């Protein structure tokens, strides 16, 4: 083996080592990029959860302030009525009937105080249940882009907004197979809450829909999309149809302006609204009366 052959062999070996190192470096760099992206997504979810928690805390603080104000009024009225009753009884200037009426008024104030405390407990419980439901839904859906699915609590009501591009093709109301997987995750959480009732709303942008003989306009399209989602939840995931309702909102409940492409995309959505259980509060009112 001559000198030239030895040099060529050595050079070839160096190139092979260099290539292997370069491949390992690229693989390591790709792994780092993937971990960085996942970390950013997790930080975004944490920020959203903290925002929802802060909103709930502010609302609870406002309700507590209102209740504290009412409690002060009740305490003031109790004190004044008690003093007035005592003075009148001491002076013997009121009849037995009048004294009895004042006594009943005091009893009513006590009942009102208990009623306010009961309402306070119910509202706190409802807020806690809503936050738990939101966290369960976000955990089930996973780290999806907030532009595709957004879960939030607003004024004590849970909303699940799913983008048009995730569920349907343009101008269609047939649900894509990939979208059914997302609906299945949502359905699994809702199914574990048998007392929950909800409404599925279809929303469109303000671009006129050209009639195709089946659908006449955006009203038709929004209703068809809502009923398509309801059918999947009932027939494929076993949700109780008595707990669901379907509605079409057409273009008339936008969440942002339709003046831009992104705005129109945001307005084309399907919204699942967890309906508040008003019957519980009506029962409280009936007990009060």
Q: What gap, in angstroms, lies between the N and C termini? A: 109 Å
Note the beta-strand portion.
5-15%
The radius of gyration over CA amounts to 31 Å
- Overall strand count: 5
Structural class: alpha+beta
Helical segment tally?
7
Quaternary structure = single chain
- Output the strand order for the largest sheet: 1-2-5-3-4
Tally of distinct domains:
2
Could you give a quick summary of the protein structure above?
Helix content is 66%, strand content 12%. The model has no long low-confidence stretch (mean pLDDT 77). Strand 3 (197-203), helix 5 and strand 4 (244-250) form a beta-alpha-beta unit.
Write the layout of secondary structure elements.
Elements: H1 3-91, H2 96-141, E1 149-154, E2 157-163, H3 164-167, H4 177-191, E3 197-203, H5 218-235, E4 244-250, H6 261-267, E5 269-275, H7 278-288
Helix pairs in contact: 1-2, 2-4
Overview of the molecule:
The chain contains 7 helices and 5 strands. With 289 residues, it is an alpha+beta fold. The protein folds into 2 domains: 1-143; 144-289, 2-Layer Sandwich (60s Ribosomal Protein L30, Chain: A). Strands 1-2-5-3-4 form a 5-stranded mixed β-sheet. Helix 5 (218-235) links the parallel strand 3 (197-203) and strand 4. Helix 1 runs antiparallel to helix 2 (96-141) and helix 2 (96-141) runs antiparallel to helix 4. The protein starts with a helix and ends with a helix. The model has no long low-confidence stretch (mean pLDDT 77).
């Amino acid at each position: 083996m001559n000198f030239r052959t030895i040099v060529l062999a050595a050079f070839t070996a160096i190139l092979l080592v260099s290539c292997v190192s370069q491949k390992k470096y690229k693989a390591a760099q790709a792994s780092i990029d993937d971990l960085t992206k996942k970390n950013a997504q997790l930080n975004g979810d944490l920020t959203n959860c903290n925002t929802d928690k802060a909103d709930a805390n502010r609302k609870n603080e406002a309700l507590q302030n209102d209740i504290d104000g009412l409690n002060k009024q009740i305490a003031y009225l109790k004190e004044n009525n008690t003093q007035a009753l005592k003075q009148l009884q001491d002076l013997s200037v009121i009849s037995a009937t009048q004294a009895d009426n004042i006594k009943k008024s005091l009893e009513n104030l006590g009942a009102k105080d208990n009623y306010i405390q009961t309402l306070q407990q119910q509202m706190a419980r409802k807020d806690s249940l809503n936050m738990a439901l939101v966290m369960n839904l976000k955990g089930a859906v996973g780290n999806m882009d907030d532009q595709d699915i957004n879960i939030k609590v607003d004024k004590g009501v849970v909303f699940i907004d799913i983008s048009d591009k995730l569920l349907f093709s343009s101008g269609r109301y047939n649900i894509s197979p990939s979208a059914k997987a997302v609906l299945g995750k949502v359905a699994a959480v809702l199914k574990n809450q048998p007392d929950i009732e909800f409404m599925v709303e279809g929303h469109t942008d303000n671009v006129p829909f050209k009639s195709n003989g089946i659908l006449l306009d955006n009203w038709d399209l929004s209703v068809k999309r809502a009923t398509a989602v309801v059918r999947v939840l009932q027939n494929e995931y076993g949700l109780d149809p008595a707990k669901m309702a379907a509605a079409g909102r057409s273009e008339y409940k936008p969440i942002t302006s339709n003046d831009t492409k992104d705005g129109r995309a945001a307005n084309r959505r399907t919204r699942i609204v967890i309906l508040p259980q008003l019957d519980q509060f009506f029962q409280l009112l009936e007990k009060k009366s």
